[in-house]
Specification:
The chain is α/β, with parallel strands linked by helices and about 625 residues long. It is built from 24 helices and 15 strands. The strands form two sheets. It has an eight-stranded antiparallel sheet with strand order 5-12-8-9-10-7-6-11. It is globular, with a radius of gyration of 29 Å.
């Protein structure tokens, strides 16, 4: 990526503003002005320098990167290096959309080229509330607003009384309705309550205020029953989802791609907290094919589609981890563009969507539910030799390999047997509030009760020392912790109530924790600085204002260490009170490691794991037969 030489020229040209800032502060202090006031006056020159040299987007991106650094303990990335220094137009297919507005922040953090995201127009509108902060950031990074029908839906007057088939047409009968004024051809009915809640029907013709003709597949599948049909709809309240012309959005995307820009799209649509991907929407295929059709072969040869996998490790929690996997870029074939241009839009779009789905699955871990996903992670832990530390990239690659392998051999009786044993072991760990690594580390060096008691006493003392060190910071941060938790839980509850795909609303939690932090951290810091000023003096207030953030970040790191010490108390306590249980868990784990290794060797899972290791993360050593023979064989 070429450097903007004009930017460096501007910095040299306006460097005198920084000199003026330092001179103003020093001069006013020398003449007896309060240091705080003198510093504030000097900052005005600095702010002026920033306005001349830094764009709004650059400031926002750096601020958001700082938020990511604080909220996440680790952000690992693979595959971005081969894209950062190219000047080709890119369409990023990002999935799963599991962390609402945090997801684009992660992309901005891990990708060096400017990315314009497709964003719900609802999120980019200012509403004179806390969500205006999100709107400011979304507009500041040049997002493309997309109007969604559900965001501008209107509540229907009256109810849908019955739906029946007459003269080979599906007809909706309303009571107290005004279909002629409320809807038109192309709009959709959405049932909002009752057993068919969530079912939709496309309107083909509005006959009268109480009669409308809908598509044959009307009201197929609801939130609670995928098998429901229009025959199940009765006395149902409804909304009208208007047909939205997205031509303006498509033209904006075409223009960005033709200018060698990068566009980020979440093809699942809205965010969700499911373990598996939602069905991908065809909009990304239409954008790729439409851009190639409009701008010709010159753009098609340059355009690349890239799948980006966001793999979170409890991403809704503070100080969690995330691994971002950028897949191999691929071009849109000339054959598909020709088919699309000749009128076969659905066929060409479906084929391109199949390619995109395959690419997305290659950079994500797929599981039908969260319990199965946890089983895949446990298989990975048991497969890896004790003492071998994996990077996040290696962990995701290996887990993805097990997910693919289990899917291939799910009907094998040996696979079913091992999966049941792994699930039972995982259940026991949850019951005793233990982690697999704690069982793995409970070796022969902690077999003596006296040693275990001494180690327990030492770690309790260490935990108390940590608690004393971080207690002041915890008290100062308590308003933030309480308010962010309450607000995020409330927002998640509201989101679940208004969504067809969210389970517990965990995809909302991190976003609102960060938003609350953006507002409350500066407010609390300013308030505490004022308190220090009035309780002590201006000197202490200045020191607090500038250096307390470093102390706070150190407290966060210390609290992480304290948590690790706290987690180690459980296994030690078990060695003292339930010694036999600890021995049984270690033995169960030892047998499971042997079984998982032998099953992988027997069914040839090594090759599947190799395919999942798309970036050569270093799993060759784990696939070596030497490691298999390192475990006890079955008799």
């Amino acid at each position: 990526m070429a450097y903007d030489q004009s930017m460096w020229t501007r910095r040299i040209k306006y460097g005198w503003l920084l000199w003026a800032a330092a001179g103003t502060t020093c001069t006013m202090t020398a003449y007896g002005f309060q240091p705080v006031f003198a510093t504030a006056c000097g900052c005005m020159w600095t702010l002026l320098w920033i306005c001349f040299n830094l764009s709004t987007r650059m400031l926002i991106c750096n601020f958001l990167n700082g938020c990511v650094d604080v909220f996440f303990r680790q952000v690992a990335v693979a595959g971005a290096h081969k894209l950062n220094f190219s000047d080709e137009p890119l369409l990023l297919a990002i999935a799963p959309h599991a962390n609402q507005f945090i997801d684009p922040m992660i992309i901005l953090k891990t990708f060096e080229r400017p990315v314009g995201f497709l964003c719900a127009a609802k999120s980019m509108r200012y509403k004179r509330g806390p969500s205006d902060l999100i709107a400011f950031f979304a507009n500041g990074i040049d997002s493309v607003p997309v109007e969604r029908p559900q965001d501008i839906a209107t509540v229907g007057k009256g109810i849908i009384r019955t739906v029946e088939k007459a003269d080979n047409r599906v007809v909706v009968h309303g009571t107290g309705t005004s279909f002629m004024q409320a809807c038109k051809r192309g709009d959709q009915f959405l049932v909002t309550k009752g057993p068919c809640k969530g079912a939709v029907a496309k309107i083909l013709e509005v006959v009268s205020d109480s009669l409308a003709v809908v598509a044959d597949n009307a009201f197929s599948g609801s939130d609670s029953n995928e098998e429901s049909t229009y025959e199940n709809v009765s006395d149902a309240p409804f909304k009208v989802l208007p047909k939205v012309d997205q031509d303006v959005v498509y033209q904006a995307i075409y223009s960005r791609l033709d200018s060698n820009g990068c566009v980020g799209i979440f093809p699942e649509g809205g965010s969700h907290d499911r373990a598996s991907l939602l069905p991908l929407k065809a909009g990304i295929a239409v954008m790729a094919l439409g851009a190639c059709k409009q701008h010709g072969e010159a753009l098609r040869k340059r355009l690349r589609v890239v799948a980006v996998g966001l793999n979170y490790f409890s991403g809704h929690r503070f100080r969690s981890r995330v691994f971002v996997d950028y897949g191999e870029p691929f071009e849109v074939s000339r054959e598909l563009v020709d088919r699309y241009a000749s009128g076969d839009k659905r066929g060409a779009g479906d084929e391109l969507m199949a390619q995109i789905l395959t690419a997305v699955k290659a950079v994500t871990v797929q599981a039908p539910d969260s319990a199965t996903a946890e089983t895949f992670w446990m298989l990975r832990r048991l497969y890896v030799p004790d003492g071998k530390r994996l990077t996040l990239e290696e962990k995701v690659a290996l887990t993805r390999g097990f997910a693919d392998a289990v899917e291939k051999d799910r009907n094998d009786p040996d696979v079913s047997s091992v999966l049941k044993k792994v699930e039972a072991y995982h259940g026991l760990l949850k019951h005793y509030s233990l982690h697999d690594r704690q069982v793995a580390k409970a070796g022969s060096d902690v077999l003596d009760s006296v040693d275990a008691l001494a180690m327990l006493a030492f770690r309790l003392a260490l935990l108390i020392a940590y608690a004393v060190a971080i207690l002041p910071g915890t008290i100062l941060a308590s308003p933030l912790l309480v308010i962010s938790e309450v607000v995020s839980r409330y927002k998640a509850k509201v989101a679940v109530a208004g969504s067809r795909v969210k389970l517990k609303g965990r995809d909302i939690l991190a976003t609102w924790k960060v938003v609350c932090g953006m507002v409350l951290i500066p407010a609390l810091h300013t308030f505490y600085t004022i308190c220090v000023y009035y309780l002590y003096s201006s000197k202490e207030a200045v020191a607090y204002f500038f250096f307390m953030p470093f102390v706070s970040y150190t407290s966060i790191i210390a609290s992480e260490n304290a948590y690790q010490v706290f987690r180690s108390i459980g296994p030690l306590f078990m060695l003292l009170t339930k010694r036999q249980t600890g021995v049984e868990l270690r033995e169960m784990r030892h047998i499971l490691k042997r079984d998982v290794r032998e099953l992988a060797q027997k069914l040839g899972w090594a090759e599947i794991i190799k395919k999942a290791d798309s970036h050569n993360a270093g799993l060759d050593e784990l696939r070596s037969p030497l490691h298999v023979s390192g475990f006890p064989r079955a008799d």
